[in-house]
Amino acid sequence: MNNKAEELLDFLNSSPTAFHAAAELKKELQQAGFKELDPSQKWNLKTGEKYFLSRNESAVIAFITGEDFLNQGFRIISSHTDSPALKIKPDPIIKKNGHYLLNTEIYGGPILNTWYDRDLSLAGKIVLKDSNSFNLKEKLIDLKKTIAVIPNLAIHLNKNVNKCGKIDKKKGLRALITQKQDLDSSLKNDQALEISEADLEPAAADDLTLKKLIAEFTDYQENEILEAELYLYPAEKAKFLGAEQEFISAGCQDNLSMVHAALKSILDSETKAWTQMAVFYDNEEIGSHTPQGADSPFLGNIIERIIYNLGAEKEDYYSIIEKSFLVSADMAHALHPNFSKEYDVKNRPLLNQGPVIKYNANLKYTTNASTAAVLIDLMEKNEISYQYYTNRSDKKGGSTIGPIAATQLGIKSIDLGSPLLAMHSARELGGSFDHEQMIKLMSLFYQTS
Q1: Is the Cβ–Cβ distance between 119 and 128 less than 8 Å?
Q2: Which of 31, 58, 136, 259 is the most buried if burial means most Cβ atoms within 10 Å?
Q3: pLDDT tens digits, residue range 322-378?
Q4: What is the value of pTM for the model shown?
Q5: Do residues 313 and 405 lie in contact, with contact meaning Cβ atoms separated by under 8 Å?
Q6: Which GO CC annotations does the UniProt entry carry (predicted)?
Q7: CATH number for the segment(s) 3-83+251-447
């Protein structure tokens, strides 16, 4: 198996949330000699140097300043660190029918039934008390233990589950985390009636709370935790499968596979005349309308800050944007062998057949003939196989960061990605060969004169 695919598995296993993915990015960038910048302080940049910065501890921008950026512009690869998930609500512990349940809400657009009957753990960040209320410490946590499950209702009690399978988003996605040890006699004797939402069991001093749960599995004390931002995640590790180990089975490949490919490409890059940049946004799955999302001034402001710090003027910004190129890297739909009628009759990518260029007539993907030709030329000159994807004409596709980021900047752009089956499932299926080819293409994009 190729090393790049093995490294991807390690990255996926270390990144249960966008916070953890950003932390992994920062760690690898620092190890490669990239210097971290503090956005709240003045910068003193130099051409030919490597830098990175973060926002919200979930989005990262890394760049290598070009020696002739005024004339050569920027080459940018963008991706996003977040994936569809089940997010934990505030004060989430529900005590009901002798059990403790974890209250959740849906982040993005997951395939909900894939979250049932899976070993689940909890990860995210916590905020700790400090003497300065405006300088609180934030720490990442990953309980790692399989502490929860969302059990299915037995088919004997839900006869139509295989016919409709509709999920109650209000109650059906609560995760079971433990059972009270002192069940009352009526529950023990199976005589308890269904307790209504308005008649949940009253809280007791020794009841389980989220802070108690965190303290039990981490080194932090219950009384030092102010707040938490946590997500459930499937505990099963990423792995290869298939007769030839040609598949990657893991959650969050959309879009951590593209994050990892962009990271490896910029880590291997050398200084060029143009500035090379990798942008790892957050919150794409919920529309990008956040300070760390693509639909914000984040990237544009950073580009301006870089070039002005290196001596450019306001007029130069517009000139540089015209000379720049953005690759929006987000996973693409692979042809499902059992549902081939759901795809366009011609443009239907396969796993392990190379990068996918994504087109849409209404520009839900930013690709046009001019931008596609640049990458096609690179691939054909370097023996990289490639594919096309368009939606079936009567179907609407998903969104990407491409149109949003390109609109924010006014920059020429292309949408592409590696093919993927079961996109937005708790367990997606990618191709191990595709990852190596995507990294090769991204490296050519950064480095080719």
Answers
A1: no
A2: 259
A3: 999 999 999 999 999 999 999 999 999 999 999 999 999 999 999 999 999 999 999
A4: 0.93
A5: no
A6: cytoplasm
A7: 3.40.630.10
